[in-house]
Amino acid sequence: MSIGSILNTATAGMSAQQLAIQIASQNISNAETPGYSKQTANLQATLPTVFPYGSVGTGVAVTSITRSRDTMLDATYRTANSAQSQASTTSSAMDQIQSVLGEPSDTGLSSSLDAFWSAWDNLANNPTDSSAKSVVLQTGGNVASTLNNMARQLDALDQNNRDAMNAGVNQANALTQQIAAYNKQIVAAEAGGQTANDLRDARDNLCDQLAGLVGGQIINRANGSIGVYVGGRLVVDGASATPFQMNDGQPPYVSFVGSTEPLTGIAGSLGAEIDLSTNRIPSVISRLDSVASTLVQSVNSVHSTGTTFTGTPPVSGQAGNFFAVTNPPPAGADPYLTARGIKLDPGMTDASKVAASGAAAAGPGDNATATALATLRSAAVSITDPTGATVGSDSISTWYQSLVGDVATQTSQADDDSTVQSTLASNADQRRQSVSGVSTDEELVSVIEHQHAYQAAARLVTTVNDMLDTLLNIGQ
Questions:
Q1: β-strand 39-45 against 315-318: which pairing, if any?
Q2: Cα separations in angstroms, 411 against 80, 97, 119, 418
Q3: What pLDDT does residue 54 have?
Q4: Which of 23, 360, 423, 472 lies 20 to 30 Å (CA to CA) from residue 166?
């Protein structure tokens, strides 16, 4: 064992402690960097020198720099994050749908229908009152415009949702392409046996974002690359990524570019958006259409059999439709029987066109038609869609209230689900951060420990230098 060996040992210690301090400094600098994983300099005693009397150590070296990461915790977090993102998107959209219905309120459809039925009831009590007929005409127009406005808002919500879907598809494509690019870089960087910690952190951060967007499953490859599956389909395989495309239509769907086969099992915010434009929004519009269709046909079937009286002396005339319909009826759905298209009949130009009387022989004081229409407030009728197909049986107001109740229930469930999933995602992230997150206090303690070790090694160098001086000065 020579003095030079002692010097080498001290020098190796200084180098190792210096690198450990640099790693701790890197951790502290990136304590708030999203996706950063704590790194550790792994120290190990170097191979000893073997003498006849035994082995003598030769110092310490940094054998590797590893990052703290648990793939199981990553998978748990991504699953929870995907569910939270999906629930949050659904909750936000359902709140908007409920806002469109705007119930209970003085300006919603329930209030408009009540005013409409009350106007007919008032006309039944005053069948010759032109002002009462004017109120009927006005409230009927209000019902139609309220349904029109609700349909326009739902159409706008659907279009906004489709725009978000398209943006989500573009974002997913960008993320998968970046993940594939990182796969290529990591495989090349780790070919010599090292670990590309920073590149892996960057790739994992992209995987987190992708999970919140579309869900998915990550499969680790032996060469350092990963495979990404979405809905059970391989999207990223090594350095290649298969792009998505949005297919706009009714319903909209997402597929691989060049394919018309819808991808199923998409989760995250994009999965919620697909569900909204495929199921939830169309369902509400469909039920509003059935309200409009049933209202138009129920009111027209009674009003068109009534009698109007004009002039002095009164001259009778056959009443026409109160609401517009296509004549002759179309082969499919009548656009005037929808929430988007409902409106007063073009012939309803003034209050004189409103029929209160039944048969002409009964005279203008008769209220048979007005009474029959007033009873529609609570009368059970056949609920039909714009094609004429029967979808239920109830009063028009009660059928609409059932829609309001269903939307309120779905909104409440979505809000509760969003709260629960947010808690689960937060807990999963905390568990993951307990492993991969940086504690600045711990890192500062580590810096102090390595600093003391570095100072001790440096002092050893000074001691060896003194020993050399002593040796050189012998005999002088």
A1: unpaired
A2: 21, 9, 33, 10
A3: 80
A4: 423
pLDDT, residue 296, reads 97
**Phi, psi angle pair for 331, to nearest 5°:** -70, -35
| Distance separating alpha carbons of residues 228 and 187, to the nearest angstrom | 16
Structure tokens at 321: 């439709």
What is the token pair recorded at 409? 């229930």
Cβ atoms within 10 Å, residue 318: 11
Beta strands in 46-190 (DSSP E): 49-51, 54-56, 60-67
Judged by DSSP in three states, 315 sits in strand
What's phi and psi for 324, nearest 5 deg? -70, 145
- Say how many C-beta atoms besides its own lie within 10 A of residue 457's C-beta: 21
CB 435 within 8 A of CB 66: no
| pLDDT for the residue 342 | 97
Residue 182 contacts residue 202 (beta carbons within 8 Å): yes
pLDDT at residue number 476:
61
107-117 burial, b at 16+ Cβ within 10 Å, e below that, comes to ebbbbbbebbb
Amino acid occupying residue 314? P
Model confidence over 69-124: pLDDT tens digits?
A: 999 999 999 999 999 999 999 999 999 999 999 988 888 999 999 999 999 999 99
Distance CA 352, CA 309 (A): 7
CB distance 281 to 204 below 8 Å: no
Query: Is the torsion defined by CA of 288, 294, 297, 299 positive or negative?
Result: negative
Q: Where are the alpha helices (DSSP H) in 190-218?
A: 197-214
Nearest to 376 by CA among 121, 160, 179: 121
Side chain identity at 174, as an amino acid letter? A
**Token representation of residue 268:** 């995250």
Under a CB-based contact definition with an 8 Å cutoff, are residues 77 and 429 in contact?
yes
Radius of gyration of the chain (CA): 38
Question: Crossing angle for the helix pair 197-214 and 130-189, nearest 10 degrees?
Answer: 160
The pLDDT of residue 171 is: 97
Question: To the nearest whole percent, how much of the chain has pLDDT over 70?
Answer: 99
Q: Which regions in the chain score pLDDT beneath 70?
A: 1, 361, 475-476
Tokens coding 436:
């991969």
Which of the 8 DSSP states describes residue 357? Answer: B
Nearest to 157 by CA among 283, 264, 244, 338: 283
pLDDT of residue 56: 83
pLDDT for 46: 85
Among candidate residues 420, 403, 145, 147, the one with its CA nearest the CA of residue 280: 403
By C-alpha distance, which of 186, 184, 196, 200 is closest to 71? Answer: 200
Rounded Cα distance, 139 and 57, in Å: 97
- Quickly count: other Cβ atoms within 10 Å of residue 358's Cβ: 20
Count of H-run helices and E-run strands, the chain: 10, 14
Measured CA to CA, the distance from residue 342 to residue 159 in angstroms comes to 21
